[in-house]
Write a structure and sequence with these properties.
Length: 283
């Protein structure tokens, strides 16, 4: 069933686990995530970035996701990932999203607070949760591009003040992860995470989690990480499975026979993440 992101954040915070947030932009990815959640009896965030919404169209994303969520036997929140404009947020709220992220991390602190507060004014009365971002996560996620040089880690004092002044439901923090495929082993700043976790009990969100070791994830969750975003590992699994079919059966032209194995591959990635994050069995 479709639920507010707030419900998933609160339950994860209370239960000491993280809920996976997986990006979708087509039917097979959506089905893979939902099937994984049902097989793992896990809550889940399904989410679309602005790039995903542009690619599929908001009517398709919202329509598919809401049908899938209503049919599903587990709680599902539909999230706007890395929203950068109030207009985009309003469009998603109007189309039945149950969670939004307003990514004001590129703005000066006070402006980030202001836009987050403005989004909360329109989201909360519609039972839509609001995730904000403080500190700039590096890498590329569709239209969000942050160079290594510009990436800045989250300041623990600012995080506490930000959460207090905005009343956001969750806060995405920058502690060393980055979007996209890592060139080397990402080194998470656990001391910084511990400091943030000491100063605020707002549910924390880890972006750029594809390619982060299982050990690092297990170490991070107890510090209040309640949502963990995965996009790249699904994309890589999808592309690898499609290439395998095309290479082994070059004459195959039935999309179901090409995309079906890709869906299964993505489902297995999502299932493993739900077990790793601790959300499996928590639906
Ligand atoms: O917002 C989406 C995620 O942060 C994507 O992270 O590229 O590591 O999968 P990822
Ligand atoms: Zn992200």
């Amino acid at each position: 069933m479709l639920v507010s992101g707030k419900e998933l954040f609160q339950a994860a915070k209370k239960g000491g686990y993280a809920v996976g947030a997986f990006n979708l932009n087509n039917m097979e990815i959506l089905q893979a995530i939902i099937e994984a959640a049902e097989e793992e009896n896990s809550p889940v965030f399904i989410q679309a970035s602005q790039g995903g919404i542009k690619y599929a169209g908001i009517e398709y994303i919202a329509g598919m996701a809401k049908v899938a969520a209503e049919k599903a036997k587990v709680p599902i929140a539909l999230n706007l990932d890395h929203g950068t404009s109030f207009t985009q947020v309003v469009q998603c709220v109007r189309h039945g999203f149950s969670a939004v992220m307003i990514d004001g991390s590129k703005l000066p602190f006070e402006e980030n607070i202001a836009i987050t507060q403005k989004v909360i004014e329109v989201a909360h009365p519609n039972n839509v949760s609001v995730e904000a971002e403080l500190g700039k996560i590096g890498g590329v996620e569709d239209d969000i591009k942050v160079s290594e040089r510009d990436a800045t880690f989250t300041d623990p004092d600012e995080a506490a003040e930000f959460a207090e002044r905005t009343g956001c439901d969750a806060l995405a923090i920058a502690i060393g992860t980055a979007h996209g495929v890592y060139k080397g082993e990402p080194r998470l700043d656990f001391d910084r995470l511990a400091e943030i976790s000491k100063r605020t009990d707002v549910p924390l969100v880890l972006h750029g989690a594809s390619g982060v070791s299982d050990e690092a994830i297990r170490k991070a969750v107890p510090f209040g990480i309640c949502k963990i975003n995965i996009d790249t590992e699904l994309r890589v699994a999808f592309a690898k499975a499609v290439r395998k079919v095309v290479a082994e059966q070059p004459d195959e032209y039935d999309p179901r026979k090409i995309l079906g194995p890709a869906k299964e591959a993505m489902k297995e990635v999502a299932r493993a993440k739900m077990r790793l994050f601790g959300s499996a069995g928590k639906a």
